[in-house]
Amino acid sequence: MPRPSRRAFLRTAAALAGCSLVRASAQSAPSITNATPILGQGNFRYRVVPGWGILGSTTPVKDCHGLARDRAGHIILLTNHTANNVIVYDRQGKLVHKWGTQFPGAHGLSLVNEGTREVLFITDLATHRVVKTTLDGTTLDEWRWPEATGKYDKEDQYRPSWTLHLPNGEFYVLDGYGRDFIVHYGADGKFHRIFGGAEGGITHWGPHAGMMDLRRPEAPSLLIAMSDQQYLLSLGLDGQKLGHVDLPGGNPRQIRQHGKNFFVAHLADNWPKDRSSRGFLSVLDENLRVISNVAGTPPRYDDTGKLQPMRHQEAVFIHPHDLLVDDDGSLYVAQFSSNQTYPLKLERV
Q1: Residue 10 pLDDT exceeds 90
Q2: Which end of the chain is more exposed for a tag (fewer CB within 10 A), N or C?
Q3: pLDDT tier at 270 (50, 70, 90 boundaries)?
Q4: Residue 341 to residue 323: CA distance in whole angstroms
Q5: Adjacent-strand bridge partners of 331
Q6: Rounded to whole angstroms, how far apart are CA atoms 200 and 70?
Q7: In 3-state terms, what secondary structure has residue 150?
Q8: Would strands 221-225 and 209-213 be described as parallel, antiparallel, or unpaired?
Q9: Cα 176 from Cα 204, distance rounded (Å)
Q10: At 266, is the secondary structure helix, strand, or coil?
Q11: Residue 19 has pLDDT above 80, yes or no
Q12: DSSP state of 230
């Protein structure tokens, strides 16, 4: 076979250099360059910020599960690496501080304002508890399995995945990896009620995370990301089913609101059948209609208004698990089972 001419070789090299994203296998982190392409559709398009949040070997991560942002603008990451369960970044992706060695099953992270004080609620799958801490790691309270309810035979059946909080201090715990119950606590931390589970029609591997839906302040509700069930579930505060929104092809692990829009992290498409699938993010309008898929196929609705199956398109993410939206519209994405990948930042363009 004849060797290519120097001119042909340079043309090929230039073309390769122009590639903005090196496609990686599902078992490796994506290679992001300064020429990273624009992702998403319509008014919600983004570009990965190369190198954001990458730290050294003294600050390792395992699975990156939860994200929060404090009043100072710091990005707080929860990882199940017990060298440093909580890692705090500044907006440039530099380490501010880190703490925590007691959460081997660290999973859900919620930041709650209590007057002038900010606190964290951490759920731990391995120790079967919810822990309330200060921003620097002092434990303030904890809640273990709700034994007195009679819904559990033993502690390890309870594996809380996330907490959802009302402005008045009441909160709900999603047992997303246990028996799928939802436990309601008062602002004083005392048990109020339990509902859901199989007896309440809450499907297994469903209530993973979510948020309080305050679009109607007079009638707040729970908006729950139902993971493997591929939909968002709306529940009244007493557990009454109010409706659901199908997200076919996705795997919604968390939903966040920013302004009038909602942002969903999809762990993968066709999960758990295809555990090598990568995942993407969805942007929804105020009516919970998908208007952009970041690193995913463009959303398409048929003539009846039914959303058609979505899937990942660009090899950017490896199992998005949580996301945050900054004041400038930038996205921060924490990923599960991604070979110890640090969070990604995407700037809006």
Answers
A1: no
A2: N
A3: confident
A4: 14
A5: 325, 346
A6: 35
A7: coil
A8: antiparallel
A9: 8
A10: strand
A11: no
A12: -
3-class SS of residue 164: strand
As given in the structure block, the two tokens for residue 40 are 């998403």
Report the distance separating Cα 36 and Cα 219, nearest Å: 43
Interatomic CA distance for residues 133 and 82, integer angstroms: 16
Q: CB neighbours of 187 closer than 8 A, spacing ≥ 6?
A: 168, 169, 170
Q: Is residue 297 a contact partner of residue 290, using CB atoms and an 8 Å limit?
A: no
Section 178-194 average pLDDT: 98
Q: Find out whether 345 and 332 touch, Cβ atoms under 8 Å.
A: yes
Both tokens of 270, joined, read: 């066709």
* Residue 18 dihedral angles phi and psi, to the nearest 5°: -80, -15
Tell me the two tokens of residue 326: 């900054």
Beta-bridged to residue 325, according to DSSP, are 331
Structure-token pair, residue 23: 């496609």
Note the pTM of the prediction, 2 decimals. 0.90
Structure tokens at 61: 């991560």
What distance in Å separates the CA atoms of residue 92 and residue 297, rounded to the nearest whole number? 30
Q: Which domains does the chain have, with CATH numbers?
A: 27-348 (2.120.10.30)
Q: Which amino acid is at 193?
A: R
Residue 118 confidence (pLDDT): 98
The DSSP annotation for 272-301 comes to TT-TT---EEEEE-TTS-EEEEETBPPP-B
319-339 burial string, b = 16+ CB within 10 Å, else e? bbbbbbbbeeebbbbbbbbbe
Identify the helix (H) or strand (E) that includes residue 8.
helix 6-18
Q: CA-CA distances (angstroms) from residue 54 to 38, 97, 182?
A: 21, 14, 36
Least Cα distance to 224 among 237, 212, 240 occurs for 212
Flag whether pLDDT at 340 surpasses 50. yes
Q: What is the dihedral of CA 78, 82, 88, 89, to 10 degrees?
A: -90
CA angle 82, 50, 293 (to 5 degrees): 90
Cα torsion through 345, 78, 91, 98, rounded to 10: -140
* Edge-first strand listing for the sheet containing 320-325: 39-41, 44-48, 344-348, 331-335, 320-325
Distance from C-alpha of 263 to C-alpha of 270, rounded to nearest angstrom: 19
